[in-house]
Amino acid sequence: MIGIDVGGANLKVVDEDGVHIHYCPLWRESNLAEILTQYRGADAAVVMSGELADGFFNKTEGIAYIVRAVQQTFPDALFYGTDGEFHTSACPELAAANWLASVDCLRRTYPDGMMLDIGSTTADIVPFAKFEELRGLTDTLRLQRGYLVYTGMLRTPVATLANSAVIGGVATPFSTEYFACSGDAHYVLGHITDAEYTSATPDGKEVSREACLRRLARTVCADLEEIGEAGAVAIAETFWNAQKTIVCDAVAKAAADAAPGSILVGGIGSPVFAPLVGGTDLTAAVGIPADALPAFAVKELAESRAQ
């Protein structure tokens, strides 16, 4: 059995050899079906969130596309839905069910726990205690309840969370062009590695310290030579301070409401966020692949169901 998580930007697969992450943007002509062929021969359990990609007219079209692509290689694939059940064909319940699969898996070991899963694009912040009340929640409802915070480690535009930085002693407003992303800030600050910066860069250029600094400098309409490395790092730090405040405040609010016994942190942001929220990094402490938690979870759930 393999677990598959089809996101809007990344395809994540968990098998007996570990975690495999493929950059696979669904808003362009996608090679999703082609990538999946390399895993042929296994049974597959699948979750998704990529149906929201703006290449699709609506979620129904996106779900149908993903199901068809998966079934080309895995005709008997099981798809986990927001009803907490597995399905064998396209249906509305499949939309954005990856977070619930993670909760469904973790709650069996940590019934009084809470999850922070912060990946490339979003942060899922969900208490486990009232699982039945979580069934059927859409991303819109989760946004309203504070269970979904739309910021992540790679793809968040810098200017969406901060609007200025102090450069050379002067408060300098940001432009709102998509010049730099959270991946640039986190790379410069040492929070992520080359291998973890899996999404496309805003300018389509390479991932390197200098390239990230140059993209950050453009946030204030400058070349790197104009503001220097210190100026570009100040932009990264300003973004990071804003992001960690938003995420940590959301975790604190959810924890105040649910009083969890533990906070379990997954996603590529787990090493930096776990200490900030007093949580447990799932990879470091438990051996669960935090960078592909939903794919791991749906695999575990499907295997448990088969037994």
From TrEMBL:
Domain Hydantoinase A/oxoprolinase: 45-276
Top-rank taxon, per record: Archaea
Pfam families in the cross-refs: Hydantoinase_A
Protein name, UniProt field: H4MPT-linked C1 transfer pathway protein
Source organism of the structure: Methanocorpusculum vombati
